[in-house]
Amino acid sequence: MSFAPEGVWEPERLxxxxxxxxxxxxxxxxxxxxxxxxxxxxxxxxxxxxxxxxFNFPGKNMLQALMTVPFVLPTVVTAAAxxxxxxxxxxxxxxxxxxxxxxxxxxxIDQTVTFFLLAHIFYNYSLVLRIVAGYWSNLDPDIREAxxxxxxxxxxxxxxxxxxxxxxxxxxxxxxVFIFCFTSFGVILILGGPGYATIxxxxxxxxxQFFNLPMAAALSLIQILINFLLMWxxxxxxxxxxxxxxxxxxxxxxxxxxxxxxxxxxxxxxxFMVTLLLAPLSALLLRSFIGxxxxxxxxxSSLFTSHTRSVFFVPPINAVLNSIGFGLTAMCIAVILxxxxxxxxxxxxxxxxxxxxxxxxxxxxxxxxxxGFGYIITLNTPPLxxxxxxxxxxxxxxxxxxxxxxxCILPGIRQIPQSLREAATLLGSSPLQVWRRVxxxxxxxxxxVGAIFAFSISMGEFGASSFVTRPHxxxxxxxxxxxxxxxxxxxxxxxxxxxxxxxxVTASGFWLLGKITDNR
Amino acid sequence: MTILNVxxxxxxxxxxxxxKEITFSLKKGEILCLLGPSGAGxxxxxxLLAGLEKEDGGIVTFGNLNIQTIPSHKRNFGMMFQEYALxxxxxxxxxxxxxxxxxxxxxxxxxxxxxxMLETVGLKGFAHRTIDELSGGERQRVALARSLAPExxxxxxxxxxGSLDRTLRDRLSVEIRSILKALEVTALFVTHDQSExxxxxxxxxxxxxxxxxxxxxxENIYRTPANTTVASFLGFKxxxxxxxxxGDLFCSAIxxxxxxxxxxxxxxxxxxxxxxxxxxIRGEEIKEDEIxxxxxVVKKQFQGATYxxxxxxxxxxxxxxxxxxxxxxxxxxxxxxAIRTSALIWLAS
Lengths: 520, 349
Hints:
The complex is a heterodimer. Chain A contains 23 helices and four strands. Chain A is an all-alpha fold. Chain A folds into two domains: 31-287, Orthogonal Bundle (MetI-like fold), CATH 1.10.3720; 297-520, MetI-like fold, CATH 1.10.3720. Chain A has a two-stranded parallel ribbon. By secondary structure, chain B is of the alpha+beta class. Chain B has helices spanning 42-50, 92-102, 107-120, 136-148, 166-182, 194-200, 218-223, 228-233; strands at 2-13, 16-27, 31-35, 57-62, 65-66, 77-80, 154-158, 187-191, 203-208, 211-216, 239-245, 249-252, 257-258, 269-273, 278-280, 290-302, 306-313, 316-323, 334-340, 344-347. Chain B is elongated, with a radius of gyration of 25 Å. Chain B has a six-stranded mixed beta sheet, sandwiched between helices. In chain B, strands 13-12-11-14-20 form a five-stranded antiparallel beta sheet. Chain B has a five-stranded antiparallel beta sheet with strand order 15-19-16-17-18, with no helix packed on it. Chain B has eight helices and 20 strands. The chains are: A mainly alpha, B alpha+beta. Chains A and B meet through helix 7 and helix 8 of A and strand 6 and helix 2 of B.
């Protein structure tokens, strides 16, 4: 479409785009903010990873489950939560104004880089922590002790032994965070304001505001290309070093906290985690219960009624059931596709493996906006006219979740020793039987983990949903977005209430995930 | 010259005692083997000396210096880990030279030392191999070279041969001893394998459930196990419980025997008969330093140089290694045995 607007081959438009200053500015800004976000997230998350990998403390599992919530929280909700907390009319500012008797809000980060950098850190902190902590805890502690016995001080051991060994995990996490920030959309659009545009935001503006579809398509292509290269890089790091994307299990034998230094390190980090992760979410929770006249349940109760003046034809609470239904279907689609893809990738050898790995990860790199946009363009002509079908939502969600599922299942299948399959073959199993009787049962846990991830992603998916959901069957994030875009306190409160419900459903999913991986 | 002194060393984990009041000392250049079943506290003792764990109480001095407050990286002790713990991101040269690097020794000196160490362990020309390319035995040698390169004052080896196969183990245990002796290194060697301990050690310490049961030379440990725990750990089966009547009559399941030597606790005696101490007599008189036993052959197992015979004496089973000439009687036949009294040992219970 970028080459042939109105069905005519017209590369001129693309040349025009590449030669424009604006394009370079957007590209430079996109790279710059992604790099900055990645750097800050890494610096802040590495001490947390150390603590999670090495120590046991009360509430660890709970915190781990909670920390995954931001990652699948719809961008709209995150943006709303940060505004509820730190915006010019947010909780912190109004408290400070009352407490210090100020006339204006003391924290003014609305529409600044700081605001969306904070949100990016909020989003990716737990991702880095999970990947690095999982890998770190599986490093042999003997190796560290061996360095100590050879005369290396703790700092030298970290610098010369631990850090080099952690590089694959850190690099893998960094590339992922970079990709996510590179395609960041909702956060920048809402918290950054009109002054900032990433490629993704520019695609949206070109497509929705200026109806310049060829330009939007051209930008999408460039973004896909860059993302594909990044994904390929990520796959190369991962396949060599078996960095697990979502290894929830932290191995090794975590120790109890001892001594003043460890205690203060733990406390500082926990305080930081709780502030970073819980403050926006609690602000959200508080706002869902506090109206103009103090405590109220009105926002929740009004979710069950269908107002005539409302933006919905059905009680908003139906969205919860819609979301769960879509989520389960999307989960099945993603798991079945993910299983086949993982089995193929696990058996693929040689140089082509990272390439296919990257191809499979492409939906992850292709932003949801591009994906939804693509569905609308391609699926509206026979024989595949699904544009009005109810099936479109789960299919889109399944596709978004698919790369995550592969990332969960693939390491599990790669870990199964080839000798087990060979033994089964010599005992008379056909290749299909081997797959069914050896691979499937041994990878059952990663498959479960992938399934819950797929479900949670479907619950929170917004970008593609905003294009493909039908008005009478909205999902929860779409409902929240509609509430947010309407004026009035009741709408805002209902958005907060719905966000709280969504948050709870997602958190329960991850709590379940923690339970499953604990019981092995 | 005594160099390592351990006094009343104790340790516990979550209320469970791991080591109970361990006391021993070691001379410079000696090799001590810590021998005991798994869970006896051998590795804990080693890690305490290395400074990788903290003791509950006791005193450890090395060369008249209390080392308990010195962090492990400043003790200048070497340690060889069970799974070797080679640095996977460094090649053989970088692994072996790491300790020297930490001592800030110049590159030239490091190269010479590494070459010398690799030659000592028989890995000349391996300097630029990666760890992945090495076999189990080669890794073991690299680990040994790495721990020896910085010339540690004390070398600690934690089951260094544990993951190798039997043949390689037998060969390497002899090799390790000759390397350590050539370099005059004081060493502590943890193992659960008795033959490995006997072939490597100058001194053997038997640990059992956190207690130091016996500390002696390998020969003395084998000849005179201190108590029933040590004897059964060493694999002795002929341990007979009984009591003394009328001064020198030992009454037990094998019947009454007159014994010249006496046990301490007359009501609760444990007699060990070593398996190689018997000979078969066919009608002739026994010698003055022998006692006679009568029994019936229950099992007979050919083992090459010897037969292993299970003989029912009175109500107890005894096991003896007997020469293949003259051929011992077959299963079910009665047998008369003469046992050297020097092979009878009273054990403390």
